[in-house]
Specification:
The protein has 480 residues and is α/β, with parallel strands linked by helices. It contains twelve helices and eleven strands. Strands 1, 2, 3, 6, 7, 8, 9, 10 and 11 form a nine-stranded mixed sheet that branches. A two-stranded antiparallel ribbon has the order 4-5. Bound molecules: zinc ion (ZN) (2 copies).
């Protein structure tokens, strides 16, 4: 049994909850050795940024979750990356080392606050649980009392029924006795005299062979009466070899075995209820210890919410981007940009499309000098939520190269999207890799350049977590 209106997680000991949350965060981190390590360093910057947003919004669980993710990534996972010791990333390593202390401190502060919150919730849960158990106990007692009342009433009804039955039986017996008496009296009026005991001594052996006289057939079939007549005849018959002891009349009537008269007095007015036969009452679980709750259940709401974070795209964004790319498109050269968003209230809203320095071809586009891009994003606390590129002549889809490019975006942020603008086909696609199939297949694939991938099942799909919003506009920042 559990409190119906309180979240299940409240039943868990506060320390256990913190522990489960930490484990959930650590378990959510994995790295792909094929992804350049610089990507992870960059991802760390955005992880910290998102953690801070959640912390500022008082979403402590998510803040703590992301800080724990950060420490797991940089303390446990990244040192195993083949490029970890590369001199090219020594600067990033140094920055992260300096950061870790601050991140640990932040995580510790949130942990303490969360512990206080969890303790309060747990206390409330215990109080509610005690109230609930007291109420359940009261209900049980009421039910027990009711059952006892019903049992007494049933017993009372049974007694009344037995009494009525007995009265009828007694009446019947009285009647029979009366009839028997009448016969006896009639018999005594006949001129046959019962010989005195002295005369009934077996002093007439010669008469023993004599045929005993049969009694006149009686039209009364009562066994008791036959018994009486036989006894009577035997008594008066000279053939009787044994002295006759005529039992008193009353004793010849056998009362029905099921109706002992004394039952009335023995049972008393109304017996107390026999508790050994009372109906089984369900036992109350008096323990306040709740059943074990898996971490995934404990934070199910949080994780569910997390997987449903929306990416809000201003409706005019693709056209705005296309207008900046026009020159390239006319030259049949691809153009790409980064989708940068603000994280607020657990949703990403794309506010900027940033075009970094790049090198494009008719079917590919390579970003250059990303530092400049990062610098701009950092200035505005923007989160990378994917990328956008043109297909000057082709339709909107993700090529094999695009799949690999997008895979690394989606590995860093699972909500990452890829917008493909195909002006010749007058179409725009918003895609992401299918999870887990597309993500697993592409991240396992070690090929580069254009190469075929099995297409069934699908490796990418139209995004379901994107919402177009025509009340918003995005700024296009051209850093080329
Ligand atoms: Zn493409
Ligand atoms: Zn591949």
């Amino acid at each position: 049994m559990e409190n119906s209106d309180l979240p299940k997680a409240w039943s868990i000991d506060p320390r256990e909850r913190i522990k489960a949350l930490s484990e959930l965060a650590s378990g959510s981190v994995s790295i792909n050795h094929g992804i350049p390590i610089k990507r992870y360093y960059r991802s760390g910057v955005e992880l910290e940024r998102m953690a801070k947003v959640y912390e500022d919004e008082k979403n402590l669980e998510k803040g703590f979750f992301l800080y724990m993710k950060y420490t797991t990534l940089f303390v446990e996972c990244l040192p195993k990356h083949p490029e970890y010791k590369s001199p090219q990333t020594s600067n990033e390593r140094k920055i992260v080392r300096g950061k870790l202390k601050t991140i640990f401190d932040r995580a510790e502060i949130i942990k303490n606050n969360l512990t206080i919150i969890y303790a309060g919730q747990h206390k409330k849960w215990i109080v509610e649980e005690q109230i609930r158990q007291a109420e359940a106990e009261q209900k049980r007692l009421q039910k027990e009392a009711q059952l006892e009342k019903e049992a007494v009433a049933a017993k009372r009804a049974e007694m009344v029924r037995r009494e009525t039955e007995l009265a009828l039986e007694l009446e019947q017996i009285e009647k029979q006795l009366e009839e028997t008496r009448t016969i006896a009296v009639k018999a005594s009026e006949k001129p046959i005299v019962i010989p005195p005991p002295m005369q009934r001594q077996p002093t007439y052996p010669s008469l023993q062979t004599a045929e005993p006289s049969r009694p006149a057939p009686s039209n009364n079939n009562s066994a008791s009466i036959i018994s009486f007549n036989e006894a009577y005849n035997n008594a008066i018959s000279p053939a009787a070899s044994a002295p006759l002891i005529l039992p008193p009349l009353e004793l010849q009537h056998t009362l029905p075995p099921s109706a002992p008269i004394q039952i009335i007095s023995d049972t008393g007015p109304f017996p107390s209820v026999d508790r050994s036969t009372k109906p089984a009452v369900p036992q109350i679980d008096r323990s306040t210890k709740p059943a074990a709750l898996a971490a995934s259940d404990m934070f199910a709401d949080m994780m569910k919410e997390d997987s449903q974070r929306e990416v809000i795209v201003p409706t005019s964004l693709p056209d705005k981007f296309l207008s900046v790319c026009l020159d390239n498109t006319q030259k049949n050269i691809e153009t790409c940009g980064i989708l940068a968003a603000k994280l607020t209230a657990n949703n990403f809203t794309i506010t900027h499309v940033i075009l970094p320095k790049q090198h494009g071809t008719p079917d590919s586009c390579q970003t250059l000098a990303e530092e400049e891009l990062f610098e701009y994003q950092d200035k505005l606390d923007l989160i990378t939520v994917g990328w956008i590129h043109t297909h000057p002549t082709q339709s909107a889809f993700l090529s094999s190269v695009d799949l690999h490019t997008h895979c690394s975006y989606q590995l860093m942020l699972k909500e990452a999207i890829a917008i493909v603008c195909a002006p010749k086909h007058n179409s725009t696609g918003i895609f992401s890799l299918t999870d887990p199939h597309g993500m697993e297949s592409v991240s396992r694939c070690t090929k580069s350049g254009f190469h075929p991938h099995p297409t069934i099942p699908a490796l990418f799909e139209d995004c379901k977590h994107v919402r177009m919003d025509n009340s918003l506009t995005a700024q296009v920042i051209d850093l080329r």
